[in-house]
Every structure is written in C-alpha cells, then in structure tokens.
Queue: 4 jobs
Job 1
Amino acid sequence: MNVLVIGGGGREHAIIRKLRESPRAGRIFCAPGNGGIARLAEQVSIGALEFKKLADFAAENGAFTVVGPEVPLAEGIADYFISRGLPVFGPVKAAARLEWSKSFSKSLMKKYGIPTAGYEVFTDAESALEYVERAARPLVVKADGLALGKGVTVCESREEAREAVLGAMRGKNGPAGETLVIEEFLTGPEVSVLAFCDGKTISPMLSSKDHKRALDGDLGPNTGGMGAICPSPRYTRETARECQEKIFEPTLRALLAEGLDFRGVLYFGLMLTPDGPKVIEYNARFGDPETQVVLPLLKTDLLEIMTACAEGRLAELKIEWESGAAACVVIASGGYPGDYEKGKEIRGLDEIDEASGVWAIHAGTELLDERIITSGGRVLGITAKAPNLSEALVKAYGAAEKIRFDGAFYRKDVGR
Ligand code: AMP
Ligand code: GLY
C-alpha cells in the first residue's frame, strides 16, 4: 500500500521512519517533507491546505493518507478525503474541534465530568476584565482557537491577566483570540498521553514528556518543544489506571454521545495535580516532539494500526510496546523562539552511528545541492533508544555534541 504523509516537521519524519518498517508499505510520499524526510520518502510539493491537489495525488497513486499537523484537520481535510472515497488517518473537522476550540473542549469536559481546571468563557473584553478583578490568582488566559502554541498566558498578577485579555481581544492571536477561556491555575508534573482511536475503541500509547521552555531549568519562553522522553517516570501504573477510568474512556464516551467519530490520534495533555490527573488540553493529532520518542518503542506495524483506525477495527488489534526508553534532544537555531537566521550548513550528521540506536530526526532542514541546511527554528531532534532512560539520554547527548551549525543550541537538562 502506498502512503502519503502530510506535513514536514520532526513529527512527520518520525512517522515516516516507522512506516518504512512496515512490510505493507509500498511507496511513501510526503507533502512537503524536509531535508531528512527526502532520504526516506518521495517529496511532493503540494501545500497542506491544497485539499483537491492532495486528494487527486492520493487517488492517482493509490495512497492511504496520514495527516500530521492540526491546521488541515481543523480545516476539514479528513471530511474532504472521505467525501471523495479516499482512505485517511486523522479526524473529521467536527471531531478535531477538541483541539481547535478550547471553549468546546472545556464544555465537553464539564458536561461529561472529565477532570479539568475550572474555567469561564468570554466573548467581550469588558466581562473578561471584570472577571479578572474578582477571580482568584494565578489565572491562565487562553485563546479559543489554534494559535501555534502561543495562545496561552499564565498570569501571576491581575495586571498580567488584564494585559493578556486586552492583547487577545486586540487580535494578538487573530480570530483565534476573539473568544477567551480563563482558567484556574493548576500545579503538578505534566505528562502527554497520545492514544490511537477509531471512533469506538481507544488505545493509549506509552506516556511521554515534552520540554516546552527554551532554556535549562524550564526557564525562558515557551517553544514548540525542546526535547522529550518516553515513558514519563511520573506516569505510574496506578496513574495510568486512573486516567483510563476517569479521562480516556469518559472522553471516548463523550465523543460517542455527541455523535463525533474520532479516527486518528487523540492527544491528552495532562497535569498530575494533588487532586488527581486533569486534562490541560486535547490535541487531535500526534504531538511534536512526543512522537519522536513514542513511536520508536512501538512494536506493532504502524500502518496496520492506522488503517485499522480509519476502518473502525482497532479492537481487532493487539498493540505492543517495547520495554525500554527513548529520549530526544532538540537542536535549535540561535534566537529561537524569537527571530533566527536560516540557511546555515549543518555538519556532523554522518558522524551519528544509527546502528548504535541513535538517529537525527529532521524538523527545520532542507536538502540543497547534497548539503543539509537549516530552514526553521527547531532544526533537528537527536533521538536515541536504550534499555533505560539514563542510557538513552547519554546516547542522545553524545550524538548531539557532534552536530555543528552556526548558532546551534540545545537544552542540557532533557529528562532530568
Ligand atoms: P496548552 O496550550 O493548553 O497546552 O497550554 C500550554 C502550557 O500552559 C501547558 O503545557 C501548561 O504548562 C500551561 N498551562 C495551561 N493551562 C494551565 C493551567 N490551567 N494551569 C497551569 N498551567 C497551565
Ligand atoms: N508537544 C505539544 C504539541 O504537540 O502540541
């Protein structure tokens, strides 16, 4: 079976790496791909929102389509493919709403008793500001819609909360911020759990932990993710049981009760609070960089799982995982997540010994005349697998040291 993967970041590189292991996979295409994906898949220059062109391409090439990023899902790419009778991995727009509208996901959680932070929704600045004056602090101000991870502000003071409200209402996040969710501040370790879902059955993957801040010690601005580990040491068997019972199963039941057919990856961003695990956010896709560490530990054929999700027969599969650990250290361009330069030549990639269980996942790279150059803020995710987390970290850091490009930097405390 041929496969078309949509996207061009580290997540899609990790997905394609895994798909290449499938004996059922024929030709693998990626639109648009990147410098690392270029070595594993045939690159197709069609944009993620050019639904007709993508569907024509998938139809001509008999391809099963896998959607990586959230924007095409929020714009209804799965609905379009289904209307054309084309097989696709990724939820329809109405189900992906769990990610593209925070006010929707919060009301769903409230209605079905799924643990999450207390909240209020506002559509005008006046009532939001009035609420800020009387609510307990700290507060978390969130834009309702997709905002590239930039729509959330944790506000210690009332002044900060006022600014966050005014900024959002003034259009800092575009239409995403016209509706606001203001939430109670929660504390505790954060864990990501991604789950395969076919609309009727949910199968959680191994837990993982993202490192969102730019600098060591969880300091500096939020980023798209500076590293990840799998599994999360904080996610015990007991916690997993509690999440299954109070969060995962109830979310699936809520979707079913609302007539929402979720086929794809349902991502649970969780906080393990003193009152038990609570949902911080849902995403309707694989996480980035969580995918880079979770998929290497998957034993079952990924393509088999994805087609089973699309066809609603996930219950037939037994999904198996390796018992080891994986770690990913992201190497970023100097200045990221602010302004940074592109086009820097990357050296040292051929010094990474893949046979020893460590490899470079490409995020922001491009292949130019046989050279790999930087083309984004997050450039590479050096990823390793080992029998335990400390060995995986030693391997990943050992290989990260070999990578050189102007301005390269990475966190030194991933997994600690
Ligand atoms: P989100 O985009 O909703 O995942 O939020 C981004 C980050 O903001 C999360 O990973 C948390 O670190 C933080 N955050 C979001 N909501 C809350 C909350 N209610 N309490 C504390 N921190 C939060
Ligand atoms: N790692 C967070 C996300 O993918 O949204």
Job 2
Amino acid sequence: MTKALAIAIDGPAASGKSTLAQSLAEHFEYLYFDTGALYRAVTLAALQRNVEINDEQSVTKLALEVSIDLVPPTQQDSRQYDVLIDEKDCTWEIRSAEVDAHVSQVSAYPGVRSALKDQQQRIGRRGGVVMAGRDIGTVVLPEADLKIYLDASVEERALRRHAELEARGQQADYAQVEQSMRIRDEIDANRAIAPLRPADDAIVLKSDGKQAKDVLAIAIKLVEAKIEELS
Ligand code: DC
C-alpha cells in the first residue's frame, strides 16, 4: 500500500501557501492544516480579552488555556475551514488587519510556539496531511516526506493580500499592506526561535507571475514522484 505522505509547505505571508496546500490536500485526499490560523487565533483571543500583546507571560498563559479548533467549513463563503475559539466561530476575525499587525509579535514568543507545536506534531505525524506554515519543514515536522518552500516578491504578495482584503469588504490601503508585510517578513525571518527559512532539503518554488494552477501542477508532480520513490 502507498504510504500517505506528510507534506510541509512553508513560505512568507501571502506567498500562496494556503491555496497550494488546500488544493494539494484535495487532490490527494489528505488533510489540509493551516498552522498560521493557530497563531492568528491566539492573537485574536488576546486582543478580544484585552491581554496586553507586549506582555509575553500573559499571552503565553492564554495560548496554553484557550481552546482553538479547525473544523470542516459550515458556511459557503469561500472559507477553507471554520476557526473556533472557545467554540465561537472566528473564521474571518482572525484575518483582520489588526491581527495581521500583531501576529508576528505573538508568534515570536517561545512559550506560544511550544504550546502550538505539540498540537501541530500530533496531527502531522499521522501522515496524510499537507501542513502550511513557516517552520513546518525546519521544526515541526523535520521528518516530513516532502518539503516545499513557496516564495514570491514582497510587492506581489502585498498586491495579493490587498486584493483579498478588498474582496472581503475590509478597508485596505495598498501602501500600508505592503509596509505591514515588510515588517512581518522582518520579524518572521529574524526571530530567535524557528525563523522563517527553507529547510536544507526543501524544494524552493517562486510563485511570481505564476497562476495558482501552475504552481499546483508542479507540486502534484513532486508529490507523485515522492510517492513513486517511497512505494
Ligand atoms: O500564514 P499566516 O500569514 O496566516 O501566518 C500568520 C503568522 O503566524 C505569521 O506572521 C507567522 C506566524 N506563523 C509561524 O510563526 N509559524 C507557523 N508555522 C505559521 C505561522
């Protein structure tokens, strides 16, 4: 029997990881797991409960206490899954500009990362999963069968994120989106723990100027070759 692979897809914000990971998971009937949603959910919970984002200890305590769940979508409004925080649907709230502005700081806290790493490993190690994030190939699942690092220029990523926000009717100024993206890149790539970088054995794909379907076609070929190699 063919082994169900564990696939890691890492890369910076708005590089197209989520779209690729979801389509790849659908194609192979694997589970799609967007790990960024966990960091966003902790950030949103902190903002909603007036926990001071600069207060590392309190944010870490919250990450250990709050119940976060990703479940199959219950509404057809282009969501890929429902995000539940203490059982309340927060699927779109975790995508707000306010969460965007604070999530990198929250995800740089070691205690937050360790609380969320355990949850990610439990699911990832079962196989049959496409996990999207920043440190899946380097830290969460270094033993993943296939690692893809999806990259694109900051300008292209800011344009995509701006279009996404507008499509959802959220106010967005392009210059601010690009600035916020540069700041997040800087924090994500330079933090002490699990900084954003391709694993040594990752395959790096650039998505500039490519349509999602073209990137998907390349990734499907990579997965098929890996399945063949392992069978
Ligand atoms: O992929 P995203 O934009 O939804 O991720 C939100 C933030 O979470 C991002 O700024 C970095 C952080 N993150 C992380 O540190 N590690 C992951 N595995 C996934 C996301």
Job 3
Amino acid sequence: MSAKVIEGKRIAQEIREEIRQETERLKERGIVPGLAVVLVGGDPASAVYVGNKEKTCKEMGFHSEVHRLPEETTQEQLLAVVADLNRNDAVHGILVQLPLPKHIAEKAVIDAIAVEKDVDGFSPQSTGNLVIGDESLLPCTPAGIIELIRRAGVDPAGKHAVVIGRSNIVGKPVAMLLLRENATVTICHSRTENMEAIASQADILVVAIGKPKAIGRRYVKPGAIVIDVGVNRLESGKLAGDVDYDECLDVAGAITPVPGGVGPMTIAMLMQNTLKAAKRKAGV
Ligand code: GUN
C-alpha cells in the first residue's frame, strides 16, 4: 500500500491563514506583531530567504523591517543594531540571517538577541529552556516537524522515534521536542553502528543529515511515519531529500515529500513564533 503523503505545503498554508486571522483580531486591540530580519552581505541564497520572510510578514499583516547591511559591517556595528532592536517596542521577533561573513562571530550575535525576541530559538537560553521544559520560543524547523506529525494524526506518546542527525538546529532540538511529546527517542549519527537495525524499529523516523537519498527502504519499518528534513540539489538540478522517497513510498505509513514537506513549515513557524512573542509581550 502506498504511504499517505504529508502535504507540508498545504498544512503550512493553513497555519499561515490561522495566523493571518488571529493577527487581524489582535490589531483591533492595537497589537501588531513585528519581525525584524537582519541580513549582512550579499549572499544570493540568503537574499532570497530574507525576501520570502519579508513577503510572508506582509501577508500576515505584521510589521516587518529588514536591515540590509554591507559585507564590511563590523561585529560591533551588528551588535549595536541587535541592541537597538532589543529595545524597539514595535519589534517582537529578531532574526539575524545565517551564515554571517567570516569576520563576525555568529555565536556572539545570536547570544545578544533578547531571549523573548529569539524567534529562531537558536540561543543557549532558548535551547536550555527547551531542554528543561520551560516556556520558550521553539526553533522553527523542529517545531514544524512536530506540527506535521500532529496534523498527520499521530500522537508521539509511547512511540519509538528515531532521529538521524544531531545538528544543533534540527537533530538535537527535534529529539528534545519528541521527548517532550512523550516519545521514546533514539538519536543516530555518523558514528552510529548498525543504524539500519535501529532506524527500522522506529514508529517515527526523522532524517536530517544533508545527504541525498541516503535513507532507503531497509531503514523504514512498515507503516512508520517518515519525516525528511533534507533539501539537496542533484546534478540534474532537481531537489531531493535525505530519504529515497520513491523507494520508501510503499513501505512507510506516511511520508513527507521534498520539496513541499518540512520546508514550507519553517517559515510558518517563524510567523507563529513572532505572533507568540507579540502576544506574550501584550499579556494576551
Ligand atoms: N539561514 C538558513 N536558515 C536559517 C534560519 O532558519 N535562521 C537563520 N537565522 N538563518 C538561516
């Protein structure tokens, strides 16, 4: 039997519509969620990502500001921009687009963002809050994955979730979120022995390794829900996930496609975090 395809693109659109409607209601009470995005330098891919964030903010009815700074911006100048945004009452979320030019220490900049405005959820304080289960803004891609699992009708409680990949941005936080959802969680990585035997026990398999089509059907338990975080450009120019989608389609119970699976959820969760931060500040 063919797996149910988890339509991230459609689900993200639904969430965006929910956010747009809630924003409309908040505006009647004088609350306008605001997101500031900071882009340093002229990396073309980053410029496209930032443009998409700006466009989505406008669609949501948010206040949106983009600070486009030259490549030669010093770390001190960038820290001063972040400090201004921390003090700016119209701004509820701050996102500094990564990667930054090499002469700037990313960690110093991320650490400087006020925790209540850390809509990326990348800072040590946000990460610590996530680990100990305190209220916090959640990193966008991991939060989007949990939302996809929920909206596919799967409750992670009691299930065996296997996460392949241990990055700070996806693997580690998604494992923590699955644990918070009461799953039994195993993390596999490049040094894991016998990964196939472990992965094929998973009821929920999350793959975030950045290797095209690396995970084939032998890693998938029949009926498992498979979440593919990878976005890899093939020589043919086509995009492929980390999972061999065609091969796994008749083994998995449900699977996310690439593109149109996890990807569109990230920006929807960024909007949700901005809305949350605005509501929290207003005491709603
Ligand atoms: N660069 C690529 N993805 C991201 C993201 O999610 N957040 C930030 N800040 N930079 C990125």
Job 4
Amino acid sequence: MQFNGVVKSKLSGVGTSIFAVMSQLANEQKAINLAQGFPNFMCNKDLISLVNKFMNKGFNQYAPMPGLLSLREQIAIKTEKLYSAVYNPETEITITPGGTLAIYAVIEALVMPGDEVIIIEPCYDSYSPSVRLAGGVAKFARLQFPKFTIDWNEVKKLVTFKTKMIIINTPHNPTGTILTASDMLKLEKIVENSDIVVMSDEVYEHIIFDGVEHQSVCRFPKLAERSVVISSFGKTYHTTGWKMGYFLAPENLTREIRKAYQFMAFAANTPIQHALAEYIKNEDEYLNLPAFYQEKRDYFKKLLKGSKFKLLPCSGSYFQCVGYEKISDLSDVEFAKKITLENKVATIPISVFYHNASDNKVLRLCFAKDNETLEKSAEALTQL
Ligand code: GLN
C-alpha cells in the first residue's frame, strides 16, 4: 500500500537504526549477533517469578504516570548509597519504558526550536534524531581517536548563547570508554553560570571494570543540580526486552519533562515495576555486575588475541571495539556486512555513530554473550 499524498520527512537522511538493520541481517544470515547490544543469557529466574507473581495477583492495569512510588523510593535509596546524591522519589525520579524513551522525553520537553545541543560523537544513535524532532540543532564535538577521550576545549568552543543542553555518556556506547572525575570537573567549569542542562546517559553505570568507580554526574552536586541522569534496568538485570528505565532530575526539570512524557507513554509496565521494587533491594545483583562482565571482557580478549584485530581499550559497557586495518581496506559498513555474510558474525561499524560517517575502521562487538557464543565468534573472527 502507498499513501498518495506528499510525505514530508522530519528526519530526512535518517534510515533504519543500525541495531535493527544488523539484527535482521544476523537473523537472515544465521550469523552470531555481536551487533545489537543485548545479553544472550537468561535473567535471574527469581525476577521472572516476581513478575509472574504480580501479574497473577492482578497488577495488570496502568501504573502511576511517574512510576510506582515503591520502586522510585528504592531508586532513591540506591542512588544515595552509591553516589551520595539525594533525589526525592515523588518529584525527582521517573520510571519510563526504557532509557531511549527517557532520552527522547527529556529532549522533547526541554529543547525549543533553534536551541543548540552539544553531542559528542561517536554516540548512541538516538540523540541527534531526537534533537531534530524537537526542532533543535545538534552541534558535534568528537572523541579523540584512538583513545576516544573528550577534548573539553572543543566542547567549550561549541557553547553559544543558544546552547540548551550537553549530552554525555559514561560508560560509553559505542567505544567502551569512561569519564573520569577530572572530566566531570571540566564539564562543571564549562556550564557554571549558564542555563545549560546536562543530560548524562549512564545506562551502563554498573558495567565498569578494573576496580574503577563510575563517575555519575550525581556525585558532583553542582552538576547534579543541572543534570538529567538516564538509567536502565535492562542493562543491569539482563532484560533489555522489557524496556524499563528511569531518569533522575531536579524537581523543576522533572515537572517539565513529565509534561511531555505523559503524552508519549503515560506510564511504564506495571507488574515489572512491582517486581523490580522488590528485586532491586538485592544489592549483590548490581554490585557483582562489574566482576561478571569483566570476566567476559577478559575471556573475549583472550580468545581474540591470536586474531589480526586490534583490540581497543574497554573500561566499561559490554562493547569491545576492534580495529581491522590489518585485515581489510573496505569501509567499516562494507566490512561489517561482509563478515556477517561470509564469517557469520554480525558487528556494528562505528562510522554509523557519526553524523558525517567518519570511518576509523573500527567495529563494535558486544560481549554480553555466553562463553560458547564468545568462543564460536572468536574462532570465526580469528580466521580473518
Ligand atoms: N543500546 C543497545 C546498543 O547500543 C541497543 C539499542 C537498540 O537496539 N536500540 O546496541
């Protein structure tokens, strides 16, 4: 079927998200999917039992618009314990169907037409289209290759009287790098005495390695008071398909964001919120996550040691970036397609995370997989 009228696009030049494209290709090709970021192992059965319990008990109707209060209270307790930051569960914590929707709601609510938003590339692919949909203008800084660190002078130079927001992300998708306390202090300096809001995407907060502590913006009171923090239950509990996330923000920002959010989703899944409100009390689940994923990272690295890929440092997230210069001259998009078809391993080319498709010949591999999958994929990649 075709609509006969004129279809004007609000997102010209934007295609289908690379995650959908590569997952579909992986399925068609029966390739191992190291592309889209999701675990291929089970979440904890107790969590499933809890969701079941609440479904059977009849908790199947709309949750309160900002989320179940008991879950928000638990998030407040957790955030204070981990980051010494106090958020009011009634007015400063909001549960959403996934981190991506939270990001969209924040941008849609706060960015006015013509406002500028500073985005640091490579970055998660929803940021820039969300800014465009809000009528905002994205201004791009870039992480410095190959270490993928932020040049804060470059960020500072992009700030104008039109800058409404700066988006940061730590641990970082797609590069696996993390921001340090010194990064946060530099950011603090740039935004002091301005009206700039910081949106800090911290969905991988519990996937950080080598004993390093996650530097949440929450830890920096001067930043926290102008920041919206995005978090995700999917990453922490191996349940990305449940689409559950939340955001933390000062009261007056929250009020404005909820105004928009209520007309996007109204509320998140009820029985899962009840289940999480109980399950989140089990601190070990997230306190053990760094060790759990560090073991996977180290194992995957070991398996790839004999390959021609260059392994870039991975300090957090469940993504290992690899350079393939010694293997092929193809563009990263072409190379990713080729190895999906020929070697049956799907990956993500990093150039798709830049507005101008910068190609450093790097692929992103998701190692949130059981050992057998890591072994099979490494075996195929080592043959290249
Ligand atoms: N965050 C995950 C990734 O980067 C998946 C996102 C998505 O599928 N939209 O792969």
